Amino acid sequence: MRKIIVLLLILIGTSAGCKKADPYLNYVSELRQEIYKGYAENTEITAVYGFCETPYLNDGKTGNLIYGLTFKLHIVPDETKRVIKFTSGDREYSAPFGLDDITSEYKATVEIKADMGKEFAAALILGDATVPVVFKSIVPDNCITYETALKTLEDKQSTLLNSYIKDGTFAAEIYMRIFVKDGAPYWYIGIAAGNDRLKALLIDGVSGDLLAVRDII
User: Fold this and answer.
1) Contact at 8 Å (CB) between 144 and 120?
2) Which of these, 7, 18, 75, 214, has the minimum number of CB atoms within 10 Å of its CB?
3) What predicted TM-score, i.e. pTM, was given to this entire model?
């Protein structure tokens, strides 16, 4: 009996180790998986973590992925030079704030691939002054991960996803962005098939239920 039990455990372990990753994860070209908020200068600073393909193009293909933290300071920019600074692992990171050419928002972006957790400390440099900032995640603990969100979509919208398969290959790229409204999390999922064609979906960040679908051309 002991030999049978040991054999079963080995087989179960081997099966778990050979579990295939969701193939659609390879087609995610933009991900915003965490949102943080902190306060300095009596105003709010938000930070989002994830990755994005570079260059960012709706061409139906996943390009080179760059991970990073993007900070947005909610003030009207002035002549003061502002820099965000923090440490992760044994390395120090910093980036200056500047106007985004596309959105005209006051942003700073740090290229980094790391687990920032649910809270991290940083500093806002204002000329010669340094203001400590603690960033805390606003994403609820019961929010499903992007992997689970994608798997849920695959399970519930297989017909839609299969419609993008051409010659045995998924001919599109996927955008995934978490956002929180009134304390509730939601996942925005965009399926980009190139030529600026986009299918936008909204799913509940807890149950994974599909809430809305829209074609954007």
Assistant:
1) no
2) 18
3) 0.86
